[in-house]
Design a protein that fits this description.
This protein has 352 residues and is an all-alpha fold. The chain has one domain. The chain has helices at 32-43, 48-62, 67-70, 75-102, 129-157, 170-195, 198-203, 224-231, 244-261, 281-289, 301-304, 313-332, 337-343; strands at 267-270, 273-277. The protein has a two-stranded antiparallel sheet. The structure holds zinc ion (2 copies).
């Protein structure tokens, strides 16, 4: 790929064609055919979404204690769920890491960032990026994910949550599966904006942003405060009619999608052919450029709020200008640096 050396796109080892698209589901004027094609692309082929729905069906049918048992909190079934979640995340993040980074099965093909995972770097716990990411994922991530899961199933088993079955409301039962990823995207955008507020950023989110270059274990490598906020997306099932399958699917969207979207690769190739769609160049740019792409491509929040980076040089310059404008507005309030520091990060839009 020949690039303008001054363009931010030239810093990547590989990138999708630019500008990157966002979901046409929210296009105005409406584009129903494009919207349906987009939805079909992640519901009908091998993707994170189809994997998460399959895992939810498998877990619900074969690896879940029965509702009667879960009506009473006890160490037995709680630890069973905890160990199962540890195994799940190790299977997903661990096998992607093994394939891409240990065995280097597809070398640098479809890899966004030219760098490898950091070693001997004091910014990471244990001075090692992969060990740091594994530690925060396993110690904090799986614990908080399991806590939400245990609380919901305990509440559901005691009749404290509104439950629904397919035969009671077939249309809602199916529609809720399609809405969950969109709700998760909306929730993620606002939580993410909140934790970029400098005091919360310093306290919690900076831990996830140690990773300028990302790998599968980076996905849910977060501070416990961020885990609490991030997984709170599933609290909606305490008030909205749901089946346990909806809840499990939603949890797996939150827990198992990030290792895929942070894999650092656009797709998994087997025998030179792309077999699994992984890439999230949109979020990869958030890790490198920082003040852009807070949401996901499923909902155009970043477009609506002027923080969308589509990968082009024009977008990069536009975003820099936008930030400078905001900074100078704050300065107009004549509260010196206080307001500026409270509401804007010192990082800005950077290239690293
Ligand atoms: Zn962030
Ligand atoms: Zn991230």
């Amino acid at each position: 790929m020949s690039e303008d050396p001054k363009s931010p796109a030239s810093e990547w080892n590989w990138h999708p064609s630019l500008p990157i698209p966002t979901s046409p589901v929210f296009s105005w004027p409406p584009k129903p055919i494009a919207g349906l094609k987009w939805l079909a692309s992640y519901w009908l082929w091998i993707s994170g979404t189809t994997m998460e729905i399959l895992v939810a069906i498998l877990i619900w049918n074969f690896f879940m204690p029965d509702m009667e048992t879960m009506a009473t909190l006890s160490l037995g079934w709680v630890s069973q769920i905890y160990v199962r979640n540890l195994i799940l995340i190790c299977l997903v993040a661990g096998s992607l890491h093994l394939y891409f980074y240990t065995l280097k099965k597809q070398e640098a093909a479809l890899k966004f960032d030219p760098r490898s995972m950091a070693k001997n770097n004091g910014k990471f716990t244990f001075r090692n990026q992969v060990h740091d990411n594994m530690f925060w994922t396993l110690a904090s991530g799986v614990t908080i994910w399991t806590t939400y899961e245990v609380l919901w199933f305990w509440a559901a088993a005691n009749g404290y949550t509104p439950l629904v079955t397919f035969s009671e409301a077939p249309v809602w039962f199916l529609a809720w599966f399609a809405i969950i990823p969109i709700w998760a995207s909306l929730h993620f955008y606002w939580i993410h904006r909140l934790i970029h507020w400098p005091p919360l950023y310093r306290l919690a989110h900076s831990l996830h942003h140690r990773n300028v270059n990302v790998g599968p274990w980076t996905g849910i490598s977060m501070h416990p405060v961020e885990h609490l906020l991030y997984f709170s997306s599933v609290v909606i099932h305490f008030v909205v009619l749901s089946h346990p399958l909806h809840f499990l699917f939603h949890l797996f969207v939150q827990a198992l999608n990030p290792p895929l979207s942070h894999s650092g690769f656009d797709g998994l190739k087997i025998g030179g052919v792309k077999k699994v769609e992984l890439g999230d160049f949109f979020h990869q740019m958030h890790h490198r450029y920082f003040e852009c792409n807070y949401g996901t491509v499923e909902m155009p929040w970043d477009k609506w709020f002027g923080s969308f980076h589509d990968g082009t040089k024009e977008a990069h310059e536009g975003l820099k200008e936008h930030r400078q404008k905001i900074m100078s507005q704050y300065k107009k309030y004549r509260l010196g640096n206080f307001i500026t520091r409270l509401f804007t990060s010192k990082e800005g839009l950077k290239i690293v």
